[in-house]
């Protein structure tokens, strides 16, 4: 099946890229039709189609079952990261920067400095410089 796919891809690429003229195009098109109409090819296509039809409902059910678990894990991870960053960044203590809270921060509440993408401990991450009008 992989060889057939490779040959079909090569034939299509050649047809699209070749400048050999109509005769070469017709020869390739004829050969592609012969391959496509071959009973062995049709049997393999049917086999793959049936396998996909058979497995698709199971895959859909698996995804449906696992998606809440994945969502919960993402939320737990977000909460863990937020907690860790909050312990090391005083500006994340709930000060939204609004006049009613007494804060003067122009940063959105969700900003916690640099992210810990590379596994660097939060206390080793650089703290961004204050924005205009903000003091530390």
UniProtKB/TrEMBL annotation:
<feature type="compositionally biased region" description="Polar residues">
    <location>
        <begin position="107"/>
        <end position="118"/>
    </location>
</feature>
<feature type="compositionally biased region" description="Basic and acidic residues">
    <location>
        <begin position="63"/>
        <end position="92"/>
    </location>
</feature>
<protein>
    <recommendedName>
        <fullName>YtxH domain-containing protein</fullName>
    </recommendedName>
</protein>
<feature type="region of interest" description="Disordered">
    <location>
        <begin position="59"/>
        <end position="136"/>
    </location>
</feature>
<feature type="compositionally biased region" description="Low complexity">
    <location>
        <begin position="95"/>
        <end position="106"/>
    </location>
</feature>
<feature type="compositionally biased region" description="Pro residues">
    <location>
        <begin position="126"/>
        <end position="136"/>
    </location>
</feature>
